[in-house]
Automatic annotation (TrEMBL):
PANTHER family: COENZYME GAMMA-F420-2:ALPHA-L-GLUTAMATE LIGASE (PTHR21621:SF2), RIBOSOMAL PROTEIN S6 MODIFICATION PROTEIN (PTHR21621). InterPro entries: ATP-grasp (IPR011761), ATP-grasp_RimK-type (IPR013651), ATP_grasp_subdomain_1 (IPR013815), Rimk_N (IPR041107), Rp_bS6_RimK/Lys_biosynth_LsyX (IPR004666). One of its GO terms (biological process) is translation. Its cofactor is Mg(2+); Mn(2+). Residues 322-332 have a biased composition (Basic and acidic residues). GO terms for molecular function: ATP binding; coenzyme F420-2 alpha-glutamyl ligase activity; metal ion binding. This is RimK family alpha-L-glutamate ligase. The lineage of its organism: Bacteria, Pseudomonadati, Pseudomonadota, Gammaproteobacteria, Alteromonadales. PROSITE patterns: ATP_GRASP (PS50975). Pfam families: RimK, Rimk_N. The keyword Signal does not apply. Residues 111-295 form the ATP-grasp domain. Residues 312-332 are annotated as: Disordered.
């Protein structure tokens, strides 16, 4: 099996902190998978009927891989999306798809889709400058979470604790960048400094980790200095995570859930989730799980185990049964 990772840096420029890409490459070797890393800048696209010459890397024709894993997340540019779309139309399986990546990159759009499906999410509001602070107080209340429309690993997320603090922040943003796309989100007090990261693969919740900020910070991201520990996957957690991934079209996803008294709210979904903290806390081999799913999805013979992958339909039936069982326990 052959695959590509599309990452912001190519193989010769990988930074040491790019844990996920290094792990994927490392485990791919163990699984007898040929995996190459490329950056979008290495690609050239031509729209032509001659598919074999329509995509070049470093100016040269390349044999197409069996699968592609985009690892750019919120930093996915228009050009990178164009590459993914092009590969999809050439019949290459992309995990995740261009459509799902574009959807979750826009946090407001993703929230709109989840709300449409009646899934529990924090109240969310799009900022319009000049900001009507009284309206925000009436619709969302304070404290309020302020987010950039696109961001990852906790970047671009702030907590305004009071009306005055929020007003100062909005005036600063308007003065520096009046065209900034900002959303406001209801602050869920029960989840201050902690949340859940649920890792889903192919419609299954394979791991769940509780993240804690270990201090006064309201953000619990492990990448920002927080810590992680195993958390049981209850029927409600599994249903919320798998439903979110399904609605947003994500084959591999990191679903963040907020504690809301005895239940949960969906904070956001990640199309290129980090898993360093997850592997450290749970001892799970995430790349191996992902590659196993890809083999099943593509129906490619697994030579390492000398068995053929199970048909995808069996997996789908099992997931459906889990969802039906979990619905009775989930938040309406």
């Amino acid at each position: 099996m052959r695959g590509w990772i599309i990452y912001k840096d190519n193989a010769s420029l990988l930074r040491q902190e790019a844990y996920e890409v290094h792990r994927l490459v490392e485990v791919a070797k163990e699984e007898n998978i040929e995996l190459q890393v490329f950056s979008p800048d290495q690609f050239d696209l031509t729209v032509t009927r001659d598919d074999e010459k329509s995509i070049l890397i470093d100016g040269k024709k390349q044999d197409l891989p069996d699968f592609v894993m985009p690892r750019m997340g919120a930093g996915t540019t228009y050009f990178a999306l164009a590459i993914i779309r092009h590969l999809e139309r050439l019949g290459v399986y992309c995990i995740n798809s261009s459509n799902s990546i574009e959807t979750v990159k826009d946090k407001l759009f993703a929230q709109q889709i989840l709300a449409e499906k009646n899934l529990p999410t924090p109240d969310t509001m799009l900022v319009k400058f000049p900001v009507d602070v009284d309206l925000v107080e009436k619709q969302i209340g304070f404290p309020v979470v302020v987010k950039t429309l696109s961001g990852s690993q906790g970047s671009g997320v702030f907590l305004s604790k009071s009306k005055g603090e929020f007003d100062d922040l909005m005036q600063l943003i308007e003065a520096t960048n009046p065209k900034a796309n900002i959303i406001l989100q209801q602050f869920v007090k029960a989840s201050h400094g902690r949340d859940l990261r649920v890792f889903t693969i192919g419609g299954r919740a394979v791991a769940c980790m509780e993240r804690n900020s270990n201090g006064g910070n309201f953000k619990a991201n492990v990448s920002a200095g927080g810590s992680g520990k195993p958390h049981p996957i209850t029927p409600e957690i599994e249903w919320l995570a798998t439903q979110t991934a399904s609605v947003l079209g994500l084959d591999v996803a990191g679903i963040d859930l907020l504690f809301d008294q005895e239940h949960f709210k969906i904070c956001e979904a990640n199309s290129s989730p980090g898993f360093e903290g997850l592997e450290g806390a749970l001892g799970l081999n995430v790349p191996k799980e992902i590659f196993h799913f890809i083999r099943i999805r593509l129906g490619i013979f697994d030579k390492s185990n000398n068995i053929k992958a199970k048909p995808a339909k069996k997996t789908a039936k099992t997931a459906k049964a889990v969802v039906e069982e979990a619905k009775d326990h989930a938040t309406p």
